[in-house]
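Tutorial sheet, problem 5. The five components below are modelled jointly, 1328 residues in total.
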Amino acid sequence: MSEPTLVDQLKQKFGAAITGSNLENVDPWIEVAPESIVAVCKYLRDEPSLAFDYCNSVTAVDYLHTDEKKAAKSEWQPHLEVVYHLFSMQHKHSLVLKAMLTRWKDDEVGELPEIDSVAHVWRTADWHERECYDLFGIHFIGHPNLRRILCPEDWVGHPLRKDYEMPLEYHGIRGR
Amino acid sequence: MSTVDDPRTIEFDVRTDEMLVNMGPQHPSTHGVLRLVLRTDGEIVSEVTPHLGYLHRCAEKIGENLTPRQFIPYTDRMDYLAGMNMNLGWALAIEKLMKYEPPEKGRHLRVIISEMGRIASHLVGMGAYGLDLGTFSPFLYAFRERERILDLFEEVCGARLTYSYLTVGGATADLPPGWVEKCEAFLTQLEPIIVEYHTLLTTNSIFIKRTAGIGVMSAATAIDYGTSGPVLRGSGVDHDLRRDGEEIYTAMYDGYAFEVIVEKNGHYPKDHQYPAVPKEAILGDCWHRFYVRMLEVMQSIDLVRQAIDRYSTATGNYGEPMKLNQKLPKGEVYLETEAPRGQMGFYIVSNGEAIPWRARARSSSFCNLSVTSELCRDCLIADVPAIVGSLDIVMGEIDR
Amino acid sequence: MNAIYWPSVFFLLFGAMACGFALAVLLSANIVRMAFYLVMSLAATAGLFFLAGQEFVGAMQLLIYVGGTLVLLIFGVMLTSQERFVNMKTLAGDWVIGMIAGGALLSLLTAAAFSVPEWRGPERAAVENLPIEPNATPIGMGLLGARVDQIGAPADERAGMAGYLFPFEIVSVHLLVVLIGAAYLARAKRRSNPLPTG
Amino acid sequence: MTTSLLANLLTEPPGVAHYMTVGAVMFVCGAMCMATKRNALGVLMGIELVLNGANLNFIAFGSKYLDNGGPQLGLDGSLIALFVIVLAAAEAAVALAIALNFYNNHDSIDVDRADQLQG
Amino acid sequence: MASAINNLLDWLLTSWLLSGLGLSVSTDSAIGYVVAAFIHIALIINLVAVGALVFIWLERKISGRIQDRLGPTRVGGKFGWLQTLADGLKLITKEDLMPDGADGFLFKIAPYISFAASIAAFIAIPFAGGPYPWIAQHLNTGVFFVIAVLGLEVFGVILAGYSSASKWSLFGAMREAAQVVSYEVPLGMCAVVPVLIAGSMDMVVIGNQQAGFFTNWFIFHDPATFITFWVYFTCALASVNRAPFDLAEAESELVAGFHTEYSGLRWSFFFMAEYGSMLSVSLLASILFLGGWHGPIPIASLLGLTAENGDVAGYVGNLLGLTNVLFKGVVGVSVMIWIRWTLPRLRIDQVMATCLKYCTPIAAVMFLGAVLWQYNLPGRTFFGLLAAPPAMFSVDEGWEAPPAVTTEPAKPAMVEVRVEGLTPQQVAANQERGN
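Model answer (structure tokens):
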């Protein structure tokens, strides 16, 4: 499998759902529109020539400069990326998928951005998505059990966001 | 596997009330601070829900604030039973980003150290599993041997648990003179002892009764849940990153002779030397997971010997540690390595500065543990430690 | 000034324990404590059996009754003990009626017990030096139909004394029936969910 | 008066009557237990007490150490006591099975609620 | 000296305690009984308490050696022999905790019930035989009594588990109840086999019958008894809750099972009870199967250290016998310790299956086997290879042999009376009746 042909193949199949790709990076990635992530993932898993049956990781990256000077120079607008690392046990090849999200849903601070859950495509995504929800505040629609996994259930905020601030105290324990 | 003949199909004679029981976070057999909420009906567990996070130390957030070499000590504290392998995983991921290739001697050194780390880790896994099943002595035997590995590691880097030895660009120092001979002597001593462990556990009839046919996980489930390492291979999936991984990692093992430890047609590689698979055992059960680990110890012994040969004849340097505040090239990489507990992955996003924009650790125990609620459905209370123990988790790696 | 007769002391001890714990069973409302008091009462009864020279029956009482039946009973208590059943209060009216009937019965029985002079207890000299005779074998032989205690008796007194072979057989069959019956009553009602084949 | 009664009890051997008194107390306690307890297992415990009270009498009449020339049961006493013990065990097993069954069907072990023949 | 103690006690009891009640104590018998009883009690409690001390030390030492460690080395000089005592002191000074929801009365009393049951079993265990056996209370149904009393230990465990208000404790208690009740059946069956061969439940009689060389031990009597011994040992392990059957306290599953909530002295009472029970089942095994107070070679009788050659000789002989019994008991306990530190733990359903599918049927078959062997090869020992010595199979049951006029000649052979192995009282009683 080579990445350029795969991108073409996916574009043919999903059209506008494949929003872009970066094939120059060390690990090339393909960008998928958040609405069609489940469809693409299902296709990647079920297509025999691809057979991405193993999900290594689902994670996210927060793109935001808290420093205004840096933000002004930055090449990108603040956004969240959900990153899927896939692998095929049969063909022993791997793939990186990305889905771009706004940092807050409809740019309203506090409203979690949404993306469809792939927990029913690969069951391992269940916990990875919970972790993502916990640390980045991404709402995975259709997730069977979207609760915090690493932080306590009554924790406020999502620690891996760049603008996260440690709470002053938690149940009487000093935070900062 | 028929439902009727299965020993775990329990007939209810009395209607009892369901009870929620907290196993952990302070429980002898949850391997640290894991909390399992059991829904029990008498001795039968109908549902197990793991609760994590008691050891969460924000390693990923820390990784966004430190240069790669500064982060090395934090990787030690992820899987603290296999710190060397964690160091290696992180170092290779950064090297992949930097497109750096360590010299030949450094490669062989890394094989020696990481395979020794694997032996140490599997020894603990074996001993702790005995503990889970109620036998104490193998634990101490395992620690006795592990101590000797730790002595060797101490000689190499001065630390016994958090080594920070393998680092980006190679290692912090070369192996001290005479170390290789000591290591070889240790391997010669360890080999016959493994046979003793097989007598004590693997072939012990009570051990077989407790593990064979318990917690059976099919290959499809194992893949679906993203399990890796001995847990995945115990289910019969032929996958080992040392052979099937990315090139930067497999290059380390280039030219090494080893077979992936996985059952094929009812046989394990070189299994004539080891106890036969008991007829009660079903592929993917606790026994197989344990057995794969035991065989991997032998495999690692073999690999270390090969690596020592190559290391002794290799010329040149063991590598050049990267500068502390060296700027990283722009880009993002994801690399998984075969750590003792499975595939340890690091995902690094760099925006061209010395400090990565994002450092993500995909831990093998995390995925391996996620399968517990699937495996512990309708088992007995005593099976829960047996199943969780067979996954061989380390909470430091899960909670990060 | 009379010398103490030690078996009497132990009789008082065991008798008081048996009666006291029996009363405690009656008066306690907590089912688990009731079970505990019952254990103590029956263990004290076993002591009384030993005191009466019936070692075998006493040991039997300990083994089967205290060790077996009551463990079973406590098992049952634990299986059914939910908060609302542990403390189940008796109605006041029941207490009154019970007390009246029980008191009457007790006084009648006690009066009856002491009304027969032959039952009041032997002379001290008569029993003090009685040899200790083992009684396990006679009981065993009795169950097999041979009455060793009647060996010396004249034939006409022994008429109809064929031992206990027949009752023994009946009890054995009875036990078997009970075993099957109890297993049937508490039989499996359902099976666990089918196993995940994964 | 009390001292002399106690003295009498301490210095003279106990007789059948003494055993019968203890037996009577146990019997009455058991009978009242059966009558007043609403918990099925409490009733079962009452039955055990009654049986033991009766057993004490059999043993007393069978013991030669308590004999003051009255009618004696001899070996029959211990044999009957033995049968009682064994049958009590059987009875307890069945009663327990019934109680558990009742509990399964009614979610209760209150015997006052066992007023219908069908579960 | 003895009379001085006697007088003192007499004075104390008569003048101080009992005169108010108008009672007196005759100096000839009663005081003697009381003193003897107290000595017996003191000795037995000492045996259990000191035994626990020794066995815990032994367990540590053995487990240490098994695990390639040294075990305790410091407290008390060499070998750390005072380690247990130091731990005992620590336990005494420890805070005595009770969970909030616990049933205080039952919670507090439970360890003592276990301990009392464990001690009570020693009442009927003889430590030396001969015509003057060393035994606290010579019971005619000794074997039965010991097994019955050992079964009572379970009550302490059940009550502890139930009253602790902890789910883990409750699990432990339920397991213990199920396990002990089940294992009593095969245990009793196994104990019946030597009883059947000896023809008596009197442990002194059983022990005395195995006099002579080790060939007379009941374990070597026939193949059935040989197998029975191993079944007995398995069941004994299970009934005293030792690994691999220690499910009631399975630390990897139930935290600590029934004693999860206990601390300090109460907790240590459970342990004393456990070690006491281990010793008593081992002693029972040694008396039923392993010749009791007779060594493999009858040194005592070869040297003439028997009661026939005078009191002192008899005493020394009994002392040797005591050593033998205790040695066998300690060996039995050591084997239990050895097993514990070697084997993994079984699961609860496997424990029950072991009892119902293996131990009970094997015990039943071995019982039948022993009966058939006895029937076909009476009067032989050591797997039928040797003729049994006359001392074997001599039982006195205390009633007269049937007179010739009996109309029921059913079983004269089985009611036959032999006169060996009697206690002096029995001999005297027989003579009186004979006269």
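Marking note: Residues 15-28, 398-422 of chain E have pLDDT under 50 and may be disordered. Full credit if you identified this.
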